[in-house]
Amino acid sequence: MKTSNILTHLSAAVMLLTMGYCLTACNDDDDTSPTMQSEVLVVFAIGGLGDGSYNDQILRGIKLMENEYSHGMTIRFITPANLEEAESACRSWWENIDKPVDEKGNIPRRLLVLASSDYIDIARQVFANAEMSINRCVLAFEAEDSGDETEQIRTFSISMYGASWLAGKTARELGCKHPLVLLGNGQNTTTYDARDGFLKGFGQAEDGSAAVVDAIANDWTGYSMPTELYKKMYDYDGQYDFIYAVAGGSNMGAYRYLRENPECGIYTAGMDMDQSAYSTLIVGSMVKRIDLVLYDHLTNWYNKNDLPRYQRYGLESGYINWQIANRYPQLKAGVEANRQEAIKKEKEYGAK
Description:
19% strand
């Protein structure tokens, strides 16, 4: 995907002025200004665009907004090179929050979208004392509820427990005995529900063996290491018969290995979107409709509906699903038979 308008080595202030993907027009029904626009800045995960999964789905959500709202909104996006750049972008956005955009002094409504769980700590530090409203708002992706009712940052998370529980059941139905749950970032607590769901869904094999958990790295780099995972597959081959990798763009390394070694006997799963085309050994995909989550949130904000302080979406929401690949039709009935149980288990897990 072409992203030549993304410049990762400029200062955050310059990025806010020059980087992005724009939809420009006017909004004639604002209460305070007849020409006030709505501006959205999306901060992607570090090195995220082009991963063929989560971040590309977010970009798809931006395109959905383009198709629906050809007037009244400007959307820009940036991809920071590191966390420091992301923090600088947040500070610069806030410093410019009340600056007019034209000679008439018109100040647009502004929304900052932090599209990675890596940014929530930064957001809570930068905007700790910020006074926000529907016209100056921050939306943080995949952040757990802080429990602070006064927090003005809007957050949501997508529970992967139910979909992963179904994936574990599928691995058991395939007759697998030695699955591996592979996390991209072993310290990212927002992915632990995927780990826990798969472990519970799979349970124990008849010989008493259970799934093993490993991680590619202990920071955000583990989501963009396809070459490293490709090399690891040589060690995994012969040890595991199912790999459930919650590792973003790194998954591409596993899919490449399986394409080159289709007789190895390792089944696997797609992540974030239907990735069954990448390997015949992908039996299903945990599909996250993050594009629709973004679209729905932006639509609510654009229409001046207040965003909830925190929202958790699970299997029942329709934003996430365990989707069996078409080449494995014999597994679909088992998924549907277990769906309501998965929803129940997910709710119990979330209530803890």
